[in-house]
Amino acid sequence: MTEIVQVKNPATGEVVDEIKRDTEAQINEKIEAGYTAFQTWKKTNAHKRSELLGKWSSLVREHKESIAEVMTKENGKPLAESRGEVDYAVSYIDWYAEEAKRLYGRIIPSHADDKQLEVTKHPVGLVAAITPWNFPAAMMTRKAAPALAAGCTFIVKPAEETPLTTIRLVELAHEAGIPEDVLQVVSTRGSIAGRLFTESKLINKITFTGSTPIGKTLIKSSADTVKSVTMELGGHAPLIVAEDANIDLAVQQTIVTKFRNAGQTCVCANRIIVHESIVDRFAEQLAAETKKLKVGNGLDESTVIGPVINKGAYEKIVEQIDDAIAKGAKVLAGGSYDVDDEKGYYFIHPTVLAKATDDMLIMHEETFGPVAPITSFSSLDEAIKIANDTPYGLAAYFFTNDYRTGTYLKDNLDYGIIGWNDGAVSAAHVPFGGMKESGLGREGGMEGIEAYLETKYVSIGSLLTE
Ligand code: SIN
């Protein structure tokens, strides 16, 4: 029997569309087709692959407005953010269309007169991706564009909350001339995709963006077939404001990083750690700016904060807020909700909590919502200790105009991505990824295509002496 999944607008609970789930047999057929297509795609020359990616990027740009609207309807983010995400998604396709032409090998100076030592780069094979609901366009192109550029074929399983953006992107890729079996989408539950992808001997690489517990499961189950994995997992970003920081800039950039996508990003600041001499002033200013952020349906152009994705997300965030208040946190902004369980929408007014302490859940669990807990520190070493006291190591931010303070912080924070006086750190041409339990490998930049390449070393001997 065909299973149908309803895609609902998280701002209204209305059904946006219905999607048929693939059966396991259909998914296995797609895996086989992707494997067969790899035999040809890997031989399609780099300039041709680059040209096809370029055409894909042009089509996505041309359809920006309709893709942004679909994204807002299925994800809830404000239209301005959806448009920004389409641009962000396109920037990955553009960057890797160029990188396709730069997959150089090298000749290594030899230790012997009769040997030539050669290193060449080769696509890893068929890649399977599991992508998240929070950035349904950019997380897909951040994986697919480098994979296709490298000569890999690609199957993506989008989140069941937000499959429509991905389906549209894949249609446009086919329209651009990328063969259907080279880039495929499957519709199924995460657990089924995880099992079929990791068990398959035809798939050589798994790339995943999502939670740390699911990432660990995928890593474990990829071990039997020794698959390469790239994992973009959870984060719990600290944001440190040093004594000498420009407070206006720190407040403005905290808003940028904390409330993007209603706080539902892996790199959102989760713990605001401010020097004790300025903490009250910073908190007051942050609260005043936060109160100006308009909450509502993302289709309304004036909305800045959309709903959170679903009831589970809402409950987790409210549990953290309640726990913090019970343990002494002071609500300076927000702390209120607009919820309809029957219709199925959940809005959380952007919230600033002062006097956060180490015993609160919010200081140790990823929040994934529009809540900014503020704590204070008296010495830089204390700030670093609080910041690093987590199994996560994705993004960290700090604000200081003192070069020595900045250098000490950047050298001692155990994070893969650091923003110094900067709350908007992501871009197609830089490496994105985390240390510790925030993941394995990097996406974006030159590192992002290396993840889809194998290295072959050839030692050529007697050829040169006979
Ligand atoms: C994420 O939250 O997973 C991605 C955010 C980004 O690329 O900036």
Mind sketching the topology for me?
Elements: E1 4-8, E2 15-20, H1 24-41, H2 46-62, H3 64-75, H4 79-99, E3 106-108, E4 116-123, E5 126-130, H5 138-150, E6 153-157, H6 163-175, E7 183-185, H7 190-199, E8 203-209, H8 212-222, E9 228-232, E10 237-241, H9 247-259, E11 269-275, H10 279-290, H11 311-326, E12 330-333, E13 337-340, E14 345-348, E15 351-354, E16 371-377, H12 380-388, E17 392-393, E18 395-399, H13 403-412, E19 417-420, E20 435-436, E21 439-440, H14 445-450, E22 453-460
Parallel strand pairs: 5-6, 5-8, 6-7, 8-9, 10-11, 10-18, 11-16, 15-16, 18-19
Antiparallel strand pairs: 1-2, 3-4, 4-22, 9-21, 12-15, 13-14, 17-20
Helix pairs in contact: 1-7, 2-4, 2-5, 2-6, 3-4, 3-6, 4-5, 9-10
This protein binds succinic acid.
Radius of gyration: 23 Å
Bound molecules: succinic acid
How many DSSP E strands?
22
| Beta-strand proportion | 15-25%
Please sum up the structure shown.
The chain is α/β, with parallel strands linked by helices and 466 residues long. It contains 14 helices and 22 strands.
Question: What this model shows, in words?
Answer:
The longest helix is centred in the first third of the chain and has 21 residues, at 79-99. A hairpin with a 6-residue loop joins strand 1 (4-8) and strand 2 (15-20). The chain has 466 residues and is α/β, with parallel strands linked by helices. The chain has helices at residues 24-41, 46-62, 64-75, 79-99, 138-150, 163-175, 190-199, 212-222, 247-259, 279-290, 311-326, 380-388, 403-412, 445-450, and strands spanning 4-8, 15-20, 106-108, 116-123, 126-130, 153-157, 183-185, 203-209, 228-232, 237-241, 269-275, 330-333, 337-340, 345-348, 351-354, 371-377, 392-393, 395-399, 417-420, 435-436, 439-440, 453-460. The model has no long low-confidence stretch (mean pLDDT 97). Bound molecules: succinic acid. Succinic acid is lined by residues 134-135, 138, 209, 232, 265-267, 426, 432.
